[in-house]
């Protein structure tokens, strides 16, 4: 049985050449050991970047967002739990998770209050960052670099 929702494989355009993702050489007649040797052709077309490489660049001067109430709890209790267990990281964080789940809402409230204090501090820093013009300068710089990369590729 064939299902109507089955994905359809996209065939390359007629006459289009498939290229090696590592070095950019045409796949037809491409030796398997070629890429392992690290040879790259000067005339090779640009290889598409991975999804990770295409993520937006972040301004290092921008304020960092606050951590959640759970991570405030972990930051304060990690050393004591690690001294008790002395084990691996996985066991440490499993125990911290169990202790967080076992806490009452009242106990969690202290960490939530600290989290809210961090949120207020972050919002104030973000407002100051945006009004200082640093964000606009970073965005202009990023846009200029993107346009320069676009004209260089063309």
In short:
With 154 residues, the protein is mostly helical. The chain has helices spanning 69-85, 89-102, 105-131, 134-153.
Distance between the termini: 47 Å
Question: What is the oligomeric state here?
Answer: single chain
Average pLDDT across residues? 79
The succession of helices and strands, N to C, reads HHHH
What percentage of residues falls in helices of 4 or more residues? 40-55%
- Main beta sheet, described? none
The proportion of strand residues reads under 5%
Given helix and strand content, the structural type is mainly alpha
> How large is the count of helical segments?
4
Give the strand tally.
Answer: 0
From the alpha-carbon coordinates, what is the Rg to the nearest angstrom?
26 Å
The stretches of 5 or more residues where confidence is low (pLDDT under 50) are 40-44
Topology:
Blueprint lengths: L68 H17 L3 H14 L2 H27 L2 H20 L1
Helix pairs in contact: 1-2, 1-3
Task: Describe what you observe in this structure.
This protein has helices spanning about 70-85, 90-100, 105-130, 135-154. The chain is flat and about 65 Å long. It has 4 helices and no strands. It is mainly alpha-helical and about 150 residues long.
């Amino acid at each position: 049985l064939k299902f109507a929702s089955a994905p359809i494989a996209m065939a390359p355009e007629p006459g289009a050449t498939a290229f090696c993702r590592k070095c950019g050489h045409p796949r037809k007649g491409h030796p398997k050991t070629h890429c392992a040797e690290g040879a790259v052709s000067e005339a090779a077309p640009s290889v598409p970047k991975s999804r990770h490489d295409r993520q937006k660049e972040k301004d290092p001067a921008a304020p960092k967002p606050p951590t959640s109430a759970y991570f405030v709890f972990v930051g304060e209790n990690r050393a004591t739990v690690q001294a008790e267990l002395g084990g691996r990281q996985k066991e440490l964080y499993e125990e911290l998770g169990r202790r967080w789940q076992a806490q009452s809402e009242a106990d969690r409230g202290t960490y939530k209050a600290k989290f809210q204090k961090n949120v207020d501090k972050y919002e104030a820093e973000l407002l100051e960052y945006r009004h200082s013009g640093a964000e606009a300068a970073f965005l202009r710089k990023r846009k200029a670099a993107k346009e320069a990369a676009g004209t260089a590729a063309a």
